[in-house]
Amino acid sequence: MSFLDYMYYVFIIVVFFQVIYYLLFLSQFAFLKLKKKTNKNIPVSVIICAKNEAENLKAFLPSIIAQEYSNFEIVLINDASQDETLEIMEAFSSQHNNIKIVDVKNNEAFWGNKKYALTLGIKAAKNNYLLFTDADCSPVSKNWIKEMVSHFSHNKSIILGYGTYSKVKNSLINKLIRFETLITATQYFSFAKTGIPYMGVGRNLAYTKTEFFNARGFMSHMKIRSGDDDLFINEVANKGNTEICFSKNSFTTSIPETSFKTWFKQKRRHISTAKYYKKKHKVLLALIYLFNLLFWTLGIILLVFQFEWKLVLSLFILRLIAQYITIGFSAKKLDEKDLIIYLPFLEIFLVISQLTIFINNLISKPNHWK
């Protein structure tokens, strides 16, 4: 057999597994019906860790304060900021009696470690139910707290939410950022519904203080500066204690990076934590990426050489249809429908970007926190 023959058979295998992945696995979230939860008036501590975020706090903290929920406090953590972050926090605190400030000084043992600052904030929180977001995030509705905490129950102590990015017209990097966020969310929501939760995002995440202290907090990965959200969830989440929340009133939104360079730097930092995931999660995620890379590489090569091109094109279209169906339904749920028309182009760009990030991370370590 020729080399193209081998490529052709590998391509068939790749398409087979990808169609199964999209239609059977990602469909766990794509076709999931939204169930209305009973409102709970449980006491909640909203925790925001900020480092040099004075301007973002001025812009976004009012949307947290304005939440229509009767029993919540806001724990603001100043992580050794060098700007006016602490002053802004104190100004808000003087006007609202449900704001608590935790002022963290640089610690030689934990210098520049967000997990250390977050741990102090969690200890200071008066409530068992904790809801996390970032200083540059804003809930899309006044019912964010209500929607997220409604998923807590006797068994469910971890709630995975969705943190989107604001839309910018005629911006390729904005579409790429939102597409990557959509794909990641579809994946971790589907994993969770399949009983294999592996990550969450700190922009919109909730868990109990009991869960945190039972796991000894971030101690098992404290020396790894990134991963206060995904590494913690990867360690403690399981089929029985994890729930997802994807109602549109539960979303948070953030201002995205505006250049490929800054986004690339941010993603290097995020992706660097994946090597610390549980082995089964690393294997699954590696296979998903490898099959994506092989699909586009082999498919394009076989079509360029017109090798069994009719069958290759049919398989190519079959896989794209499966992807359009599942990602399309997911995008509708997560209010990202405008991205679907660009799906093949954005996926190719993302696959190349992720490969570049992986190679860069092998060569040098990315920077962490701020």
Automatic annotation (TrEMBL):
UniProt domain Glycosyltransferase 2-like: residue ranges: 45-186
A single MF term (Gene Ontology): glycosyltransferase activity
Swiss-Prot/TrEMBL keywords: Glycosyltransferase, Membrane, Transferase, Transmembrane, Transmembrane helix
Transmembrane regions: 6-32, 283-305, 341-363
Record-listed E.C. numbers: 2.4.-.-
InterPro entries found in the cross-reference section: Glyco_trans_2-like (IPR001173), Nucleotide-diphossugar_trans (IPR029044)
Family named by the database record: Belongs to the glycosyltransferase 2 family.
Entry protein name: Glycosyltransferase
Species, as recorded: Wocania arenilitoris
UniProt lineage: Bacteria, Pseudomonadati, Bacteroidota, Flavobacteriia, Flavobacteriales
